[in-house]
Amino acid sequence: MTQNFFALVLLQGVNYLLPLITFPFLIRMLGVERWGLVGFGYTTMYYFVMLTDFGFNLSATKYISIHKHEPDVVNCYLNSAFVCRFFLAIACFLLLLLLTASIHMFRQDASFFICYFGIVVGNVMFPMWYFQGMEKMKYITVFNIVSKTVSCLPFFIFIRKPEDYSLVPIFYSMGFIIAGFISIYIIYFREKQKWFIPPFRKIKFAFTDSFTYFLSRISVSMYTYINTFVIGLACGNTAVGYYLAAEKLYQAYNNLLLPFTGVLFPHIAKTHNVPFFKRVLKFIVPANIVLLSGIMLGSYWLIWFICGDPLQTETLGVFRILMCASLVTIPSVLIGYPFLAAMGHARYTNWTLIGISFFHVAGLSLLYVYGSLSIYNVAIMVLLTESLVLAFRVGGIIKYKLFDETGNAIRH
Fold it and tell me: Would you place residue 404 in the very low, low, confident or very high pLDDT band (cuts 50, 70, 90)?
């Protein structure tokens, strides 16, 4: 477990360093409007990635972690999930072609969006859930370091003016596809898995097993990535540029938890070690409050240093609102899938997220109808929605008596 944790810490270090270097560079080279378009395109691809992941990052991680000592079972599930993701990728590409043919914002930059689709292809080739379930996080680190490095380093060589924005999706796709080929090599040559087309019933099981998790992941995206998408459609690329700069920093901060959640989920799923989880929670929550206090005090200088004058005023206000949301997001993320779902309450976690996502979408819809959709009001909606998520997850702990010794004794 310790080795896996440090592998994810290394991964997170790379994930932090490269974006913090590249996105300020892209803002300055491309300008706010083109930077906004790049962000809008990446957000669109994220939805396709979500569709092709189809919840496997949770369901398959749990399934493989339970059956990791049964090679034939793991091999069959791995190939079943690959088949599912392949057909989902075809469906997503057809959907992208439909968008580029029917919506003006996509049609005017059709080749730009199509070039971005390589991110989806590379991600389909990389089964992160397999390595998480087998608790071999070093391979996840390799994939991400390769994809991020190959994607981002060419930015500093080839992008010098706003017109170079069309190169961004090419470099992103190139990095993900190369990393995807590496992961295929590791799985079928280093890990000695065998490729075969499983029986239909096995493919169906993998698909249906992931469906509820898929609904929850899509639900999460309704109050995270959908914000950029809606702002782009309603307010234009420039507004996306302002909002996205703040959101990138907000997400980078929240992603500090990834090393913990990536290791905790399979561990808690196997052991149901509630005392250990409570110790983790008692450490991280106070540390989060201290860190956020320092960030809020230095937020003006942080935004000025990273984003520069063109984005400073607009981005600063959004950033401060979003960082307030991190007060509830951090404990909420910890309680969710690494704990509630791993303790056998995935259905509660998933369906509450689905309901909350409708609340968020309804809020955005009302803002649009009443002409109040702005980058600041969208950030406030994120704060309200994240607070609701935390309330339901704490309610889940109380409902199922997960912190109660008697309740845990019954479960065991």
Answer: confident
The region, left, alpha or beta by phi > 0 then psi within -120 to 50, assigned to residue 272 is left
Cα–Cα distances (Å) from 401 to 87, 300, 347, 398, in that order, read 41, 43, 16, 5
Percentage above 90 pLDDT, the chain? 42
Which residues touch 46 (CB under 8 Å, ≥6 apart)?
221, 225
Nearest to 207 by CA among 61, 342, 85, 348: 85
Q: How far is CA 403 from CA 213, 256, 328, 395, in A?
A: 24, 25, 19, 12
311 touches 32 (CB < 8 A) = yes
Contact 96, 113 (CB under 8 A): yes
Q: Rounded to an integer, what is the distance from CA 307 to the centroid of its chain?
A: 23
Burial 235-257 (b: 16+ CB within 10 A, else e): bebbbbbbbbbbbbbbbebbebb
Per-residue pLDDT at 12 exceeds 80: no
Q: Are 259 and 287 in contact (CB under 8 A)?
A: no
Query: Which DSSP symbol is given to 401?
Result: T
In order, the DSSP letters of 39-66 are HHHHHHHHHHHHHHHTTHHHHHHHHHHH
Q: Report pLDDT for 379.
A: 95
pLDDT tens for residues 314-342? 889 999 999 999 999 999 999 988 899 88
Query: Quick check: 122 and 175 in contact, CB under 8 A?
Result: yes
| More confident: 89 or 7 | 89
409 vs 346, more confident: 346
